Amino acid sequence: MDRLREKVRNLLKEGKVAGYLGYKIKEGHPLPYLFTPERLEEVDEAIVAPDDARYPLDKLLQQLATSYPDATFAVQVRGCDERGLNELYKWGQLDPEKVMLVGIACTQDQANYCECPGPWATVIDYGEKCEAVLRSKRVDRIDALAGEEAFKEWLQSFNRCIKCYGCRDVCPMCFCKECSLEHPDLMSTGTVPPDSIFQLVRAIHMAGRCIDCGLCEENCPADIPLRVLYKKANMLVKDLFDYETGAPEAGLSPWKFLGDESTMDTKPM
Amino acid sequence: MSEATFEPKIIGFFCNWCTYAGADLAGVSRLQYPPNIRVIRVMCSGTVSPHHVLRAFQKGADGVLIGGCHIGDCHYLRGNFMTIKRMRFLQDLLKFTGYEDGRLHLEWISAAEGPKLAQTIRDFTQKIKDLGPSRLKLAPHAA
């Protein structure tokens, strides 16, 4: 923790950043907090959020960047947060020149729980690299089900949905001003549970964009296994278009451009 | 609804420049195909969003057929590059969730391919008839 605080203190002192978005204990709870050079002494209280108290810092950073477009901010990132930043740069939502990373490596427990293929940031200021989890057992389990059973299982989950939009609101990658989930021509209004395509529409939007932070699933009051759905969507994008979501060198998302040629074949009937 | 009398509802999204013109040709050539398909004309198959396909299934479609120009023949040059990306992805996603498998079909049909259009619609209608009504339609509180 000292190493992290020292880095943050130096960044703030040298005026390299206008603020550091991290965590602090407030009234017994670890909560996101913006540390500023004016109150340097607070940096001693900066912490790394415990595994079960993660917040969408990327989303808060977008709000900060909108309010202070010329300022540079440092932000605490886990592996997923950093993938999110990379993806947000590509989608033109943040300027990479205006972001500095304070990186965290997740614990092995967290990585296992998330089935995370990259549980550390490229710069590590806290924690040790652990073993990445390259295969998702949760996705494999659904993959092994026959169509009928998979449908039953998904529908059971989707029918629990209370349409709180929590998954969308917590998602660091959901930055659209207008949302197709609220479009009356695309989604029925005034019914709970919502249309059974509700989660699929979100899954389509998450393909090539979801950075697998898992906050949607943790936020969901109905315990819908959203993460499995989005993990699969990303796996399909990887298989079909060879696009690694959140990787800085992967180029643009396949949905962002038409391409110079098309080598895909239609599926036979 | 019993299997014997099951008449599927199929939504067709046909591109204005190729497949829709192909349907015109099939019409003036008096080629027969089943009336289960309801055709929606779009300016380009690339304008068909996955939302539209999902919405069609939600509203009770048993099958969705997308018709576009052959790769390289698109009136907007590369519009159908996006069509195939989207539809291949959506087909796989629908399969994973068990919603539909094989009920979404994409076929490239040019303005000169009237017979191919009629044959595609005949084959697709038969396939959907064999599959039976869509799961989404039958499921409790799904619609």
Task: Describe, in plain words, how this protein is organized in 3D.
The complex is a heterodimer of chains A (269) and B (143). Chain A is an alpha/beta fold and 269 residues long. Chain A has two domains: 2-114, no CATH class; 137-250, no CATH class. Helices cover 36% and strands 10% of the residues of chain A. Chain A has ten helices and five strands; from the N terminus they run αβββαβαβααααααα. Chain A has helices spanning 2-13, 57-67, 79-90, 108-114, 137-144, 147-158, 166-170, 198-206, 215-219, 226-241; strands at 19-26, 29-35, 46-47, 73-77, 99-103. In chain A, strands 1, 2, 3, 4 and 5 form a five-stranded mixed beta sheet that branches. The longest helix of chain A has 16 residues, at 226-241. The mean pLDDT of chain A is 93. Chain B has helices spanning 19-28, 50-58, 79-96, 114-131, 135-138; strands spanning 10-15, 37-42, 63-68, 104-108. The two termini of chain B are 17 Å apart. The radius of gyration of chain B is 15 Å and the shape is globular. The longest helix of chain B has 18 residues, at 79-96. Chain B has a four-stranded parallel beta sheet with strand order 2-1-3-4, sandwiched between helices. In chain B, helix 3 links the parallel strand 3 and strand 4. Chain B contains five helices and four strands. With 143 residues, chain B is α/β, with parallel strands linked by helices. In chain B, helix 1 packs across helix 4 (114-131). Helices cover 41% and strands 16% of the residues of chain B. The model of chain B has no long low-confidence stretch (mean pLDDT 92). Chain B has one domain (10-132): Rossmann fold (3-Layer(aba) Sandwich). Chains A and B meet through helix 6, helix 8 and helix 10 of A and helix 2, helix 3, strand 4 and helix 4 of B.
